[in-house]
Design brief:
Number of domains of chain B: 1
Distance between the termini of chain A: 41 Å
CATH superfamily of the largest domain in chain A: P-loop containing nucleotide triphosphate hydrolases
Oligomer: heterodimer
Shape of chain A: elongated
Strand content of chain A: 25-35%
Strand order of the largest sheet of chain B: 1-2
Number of domains of chain A: 2
CATH class of the largest domain in chain A: Alpha Beta
Number of helices of chain B: 11
Radius of gyration of chain A: 22 Å
Structural class of chain B: mainly alpha
Number of strands of chain B: 2
Largest interface: A-B, 32 and 22 residues
Shape of chain B: globular
Structural class of chain A: alpha/beta
Bound molecules: adenosine-5'-triphosphate, magnesium ion
Strand content of chain B: under 5%
Strand order of the largest sheet of chain A: 6-7-8-3-9-10
């Protein structure tokens, strides 16, 4: 039996189908990534699975429990980290955890050990008696993860667990997530817009856009399916329009993204075609051939880039040609 | 009762809310009671002692209604999600919230009673104090439930002032908190009769000063009905509350 079974699930807000007739099975012990841009319907999907929102139509079971018929059983088996912080800022870290343990019916005699364990896991033991409101973004996130684990859920939902965190903290949290899935055999569903995050963590990834799954595979599989490698050309001065025109004519160049003084191409079988490309574009300063990234995969399947808040990504995507 | 405990901690840490909720009724007491009351006696009582139970009831009304509507903020700030996702029926969370509100009401009523007894010459006995607190809690259960029901239904705090104008002020002004209801013209009498707060005021005034207009039996019955109806509606509103 899959940990999560979703059949034709739909959620409409007025006319807008935020989740559109979506079907999906997620295996036990799997880390499953939902990757999609803002408004793709990721949070809406998780909210329905966590019985915080009623589906317009369709069915789903979580840990074997039907979300409509046995909501309480579903809630008992899941832990959730919300996209936006949901800590009680006036309570201390420990009090937040105590509240959760009581709400989720952790037996009294186990509460203190569980809280201790959870605090240790996220390395907040020495800050346990400070108010959560005074924590930094990363500490809050870690506390929320600790809280979601207190009742040892079978299924853990993480809605953008590392959004807005610095790279160090992000990697820290990735480490926890991996360890949890290995040690506890926990099924983890995480949503993200970070390609890298999905790539590093997920066993399988669903690309989701406009409430629909556009593609589902392992990270490697997705990259393979894209049928190309990334080729980065660093131009001597500026990349000329003539170069672009030449590249656009080549059938094995799948997409072109123009950056500041460089071009990023997706090229089918790059090793074979590199000669031809270099010949056509003339003099370049550097050539890099890289394996495909999920970003390219996303672009390929949805026709648009996944939007990202970080500045480095903005600069990169000035214009994109798509074939 | 995890939710109750949480509410209590939050209350003790939100100093401004706690302080203002005790200070406001004191201002009312002094402004109305001392100012107006200097020249009036009613039903053999000084005006100050006459309105004292009314002010107590007003304090219960405002405190518990605002407390209840505060869930709108909880919704906005997302702390409510944690409670909504917990594996327990929603009426349990609703009861916890109610109890939290009642605890605050009782606490404030006790403070006001002490101040009234010490500085305003309100005659107090252990029995009358307990009876009054009972009245305050019974009335408070209804108003807290009403507030929570409204809070669960509202989507943003913008409508607070509408609730103030269309629910809270009418309840308060036609309750007889500030004047005796027996002298009112007929059409106002009708309004009083259908106002649950009038029964709350009557019960508390009777408990404290031993003067009843409506009778404690009907007071208790109406307040129970009021509380029961909104406890039910509120639990249902919590049940239907979702993030969608
Ligand atoms: N409560 C709501 N009422 C109306 N529309 C909503 C509601 N919640 C979500 N939507 C709409 O549904 C769509 C999907 O939203 P959702 O929050 O699920 O996206 P998401 O994939 O989580 O996006 P993000 O990456 O920004 O978190 C959006 O168009 C959003 O405007
Ligand atoms: Mg989201």
């Amino acid at each position: 039996m899959p940990a999560i079974h979703i059949a034709n699930l739909t959620k409409k807000f007025g006319k807008l189908a935020a989740v559109d007739n979506l079907s999906l099975d997620i295996n036990k012990g799997e880390i499953f990534g939902l990757l999609g841009p803002n408004g793709a319907g990721k949070t809406t999907l998780l909210s329905m699975l966590a019985v915080l929102m009623e589906p317009t139509s369709g069915e789903a079971t979580v840990a074997g429990h039907d979300i409509r018929r046995h909501p309480i059983d579903v809630r008992k088996s899941i832990g959730m980290v919300f996209q936006t912080g949901s800590l009680d800022s006036l309570l201390t870290a420990r009090e937040n955890l105590e509240l959760h343990a009581r709400l989720f019916g952790v037996p009294k005699e186990m509460r203190q050990t569980r809280i201790q364990e959870a605090l240790e896991l996220v390395e907040l033991t020495d800050r346990a008696d400070e108010r959560a409101g005074n924590f930094s973004g990363g500490m809050k996130r870690r506390l929320e993860i600790a809280r979601a684990l207190l009742h040892h859920p079978q299924v853990l939902f993480l809605d953008e667990p590392t959004v807005g965190l610095d790279p160090q903290t992000r990697e820290h949290i990735w480490k926890y997530i991996k360890a949890l899935s290995r040690q506890e055999q926990m099924t983890i569903i995480l949503t993200t817009h970070y390609m890298e995050e999905a790539d590093v963590l997920a066993d399988r990834i669903a690309l989701i856009d406009h409430g629909k799954i556009v593609q589902l595979d392992t990270p490697e599989g997705l990259k393979r399916q894209m049928g190309g490698d990334r080729v980065k050309l660093v131009c001597a001065k500026a990349c000329s329009a003539h170069m672009l025109a030449a590249l656009k004519k080549m059938p094995f160049v799948k997409s072109i993204v123009q950056g500041d003084g460089h071009l990023e191409l997706v090229v089918q079988n790059a090793p074979k075609h590199l000669q031809t490309i270099l010949h056509a574009v003339g003099e370049v300063e550097e050539v890099h051939v890289l394996p495909a990234s999920l970003n390219d995969v996303f672009l390929q399947y949805t026709g648009h880039e996944i939007r990202n808040e970080s500045a480095e990504d903005d600069a990169q995507a000035q214009w994109a040609a798509h074939r | 009762m995890a939710v109750w405990h949480r509410e209590f901690i939050v209350y003790t840490r939100e100093r401004e809310r706690a302080i203002s909720s005790v200070v406001t009724p004191l201002i009312w007491l002094f402004a109305f009671g001392a100012g107006l009351g200097a020249s009036i006696t009613l039903a053999g009582e000084s005006y100050q002692s006459f309105i004292f139970p009314g002010i107590l009831a007003m304090n219960v009304l405002f405190t518990s209604m605002f407390y209840g509507m505060y869930v709108v903020w909880d919704k906005k700030l997302d702390v409510l999600k944690e409670i909504l996702i917990a594996p327990q029926p929603r009426w349990v969370a609703f009861s916890g919230k109610c109890l939290g509100g009642l605890t605050i009401c009782a606490f404030q009523a006790a403070i006001l009673l002490v101040i009234g007894g010490l500085f305003m010459g309100i005659p107090l006995s252990p029995a009358s104090v307990l009876f009054t607190l009972f009245g305050a809690l019974l009335f408070g259960l209804g108003t807290a439930s009403l507030g929570l029901t409204i809070g669960a239904k509202l989507s943003s705090p913008d409508s607070f002032s509408l609730v103030m104008s269309f629910v809270m002020w009418p309840l308060f002004l036609t309750s007889g908190a500030l004047y005796p209801i027996s002298h009112l013209p007929d059409y106002l009498q009708v309004l009083v009769r259908i106002n649950p707060m009038a029964y709350g005021v009557d019960l508390m005034r009777g408990a404290l000063l031993n003067t009843w207009t409506l009778g404690w039996g009907i007071d208790v019955a109406v307040l129970l009905l009021f509380a029961g109806v909104f406890f039910f509606l509120g639990s249902r509103a919590f049940d239907q509350m979702s993030l969608g």
